[in-house]
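stage 2 :: seqdesign
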C-alpha cells in the first residue's frame, strides 16, 4: 500500500512538473465559424475519430463583441489577438479606434519569430486582426500595407492583388523584398524556402475552397513551421481554417464537413510537431459559430447525419477551445475570448 502511494505521488509530481513547463512556441489555430456541431460533422464522417481528440484539455470561449451579442470575425479575431473586446468590423483596435498591441507584436518584442497561414486572403478579418490596426475590416489595401509595418517573418495565403494592384500604385511585394522577404506565388515555391522571411501570396484574392485548393493548408503550415523553428527563442504562429465559416454561411453542410476535415488534418500535423518538440503549446478554437448548425439524427456506423441550419449568419453561442502541450491546463471551463492573450502571456512569460 505504501509502495502504491509513493508511485501515485511520483506520478502526480511528474504531471505537475509537465504542467508547469514554460512553452517556447505557441500555435493558435482558429476554425472560423467552428462550433461543436461543425466539429461533430467531421468526427461522424471520419469514423467517429478526429486528430482534435488528442487535445488533453477542453473549455469554452464566450464570443460576444463590445457592441453586439453576435461577433463578426474582425472583433472575434481582435479579442483573441489583442486581448480586448472591440466593436464589430474593427481590426486590432479598441472601440475608440486606438491601436492595441497584438500577440504577434508582443512575441516579436520578446525575440520570437512569428507567422500566419490561412485558407483565405491574408488581409481577411481574422489574419488581419493578428497584424493590422484599422477601423474597418474592409480596408484591404490599408491592411496589406500594415504587413510592411509589422515584423512578421512568414505569412501564407491569398490576397496578392492587395499587394500588387493597389489604388495608390505601390507594389508592396517589391517593398517586402526590400525588407528581406522571399516572395512565393505557388506552393512549390513556398516549399523551396527553408529559412529567412517568406511572403506566400498564392492566390489573386481569396483561396478557392477545399475541393479546388487540395492540401494547401497543411502543406503551407508544414513549410511555415520548418522556417519558424529555426529561431532558438521560439515562435508564435496563427493558423486559420477560414472556409468552415463560408460553407456555413451558404448552409452547405457537405462543404463544411470537408473544410473541417481539412482543418483537422492540419491539426494532426501541428499536434505531431508539438508532441515531438515537447515545448509547444497548441490552442485550437473559433472566433464564433456560423449557421446555427444542429444534427438531429444520423448513423455513426455509416458516417452519415441529418443537418439543420437556423441562419445564414453568425450566432452568439460559445465555441469550444482545445489545448495541448505545456500550459494547456489553463484552457478549461468557460472563458472570455479576450482572456486568451493574457493566458498566453503568463504561460509563455512574455513581457
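stage 2 :: out
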Amino acid at each position: 500500500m505504501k509502495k502504491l502511494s509513493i508511485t501515485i505521488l511520483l506520478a502526480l509530481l511528474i504531471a505537475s512538473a509537465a504542467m508547469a513547463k514554460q512553452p517556447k512556441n505557441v500555435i493558435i489555430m482558429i476554425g472560423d465559424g467552428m462550433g461543436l456541431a461543425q466539429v461533430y460533422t467531421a468526427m461522424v464522417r471520419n469514423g467517429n475519430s478526429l486528430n482534435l481528440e488528442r487535445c488533453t484539455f477542453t473549455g469554452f470561449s464566450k464570443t460576444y463583441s463590445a457592441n453586439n451579442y453576435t461577433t463578426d470575425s474582425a472583433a472575434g479575431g481582435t479579442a483573441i489577438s489583442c486581448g480586448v473586446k472591440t466593436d464589430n468590423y474593427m481590426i486590432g483596435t479598441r472601440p475608440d479606434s486606438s491601436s492595441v498591441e497584438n500577440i504577434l507584436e508582443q512575441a516579436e518584442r520578446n525575440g520570437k519569430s512569428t507567422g500566419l497561414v490561412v485558407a483565405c486572403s491574408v488581409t481577411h478579418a481574422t489574419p488581419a486582426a493578428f497584424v493590422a490596426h484599422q477601423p474597418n475590416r474592409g480596408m484591404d489595401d490599408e491592411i496589406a500595407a500594415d504587413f510592411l509595418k509589422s515584423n512578421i517573418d512568414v505569412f501564407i495565403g491569398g490576397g496578392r492583388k492587395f499587394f500588387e494592384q493597389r489604388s495608390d500604385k505601390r507594389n508592396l511585394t517589391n517593398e517586402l523584398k526590400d525588407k528581406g522577404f522571399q516572395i512565393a506565388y505557388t506552393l512549390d515555391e513556398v516549399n523551396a524556402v527553408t529559412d529567412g522571411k517568406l511572403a506566400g501570396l498564392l492566390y489573386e484574392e481569396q483561396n478557392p475552397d477545399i475541393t479546388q485548393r487540395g492540401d494547401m493548408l497543411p502543406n503551407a503550415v508544414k513549410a511555415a513551421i520548418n522556417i519558424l523553428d529555426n529561431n532558438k527563442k521560439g515562435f508564435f504562429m496563427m493558423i486559420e481554417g477560414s472556409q468552415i465559416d463560408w460553407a456555413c454561411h451558404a448552409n452547405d453542410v457537405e462543404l463544411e464537413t470537408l473544410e473541417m476535415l481539412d482543418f483537422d488534418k492540419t491539426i494532426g500535423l501541428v499536434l505531431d510537431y508539438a508532441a515531438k518538440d515537447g515545448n509547444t503549446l497548441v490552442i485550437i478554437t473559433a472566433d464564433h459559430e456560423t449557421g446555427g448548425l444542429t444534427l438531429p439524427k444520423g448513423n455513426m456506423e455509416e458516417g452519415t447525419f441529418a443537418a439543420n441550419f437556423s441562419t445564414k449568419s453568425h450566432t452568439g453561442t460559445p465555441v469550444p477551445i482545445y489545448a495541448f502541450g505545456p500550459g494547456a491546463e489553463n484552457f478549461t471551463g468557460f472563458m472570455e475570448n479576450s482572456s486568451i492573450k493574457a493566458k498566453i502571456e503568463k504561460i509563455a512569460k512574455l513581457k
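stage 3 :: structure notes
- The radius of gyration is 20 Å.
- The chain has a mean pLDDT of 95.
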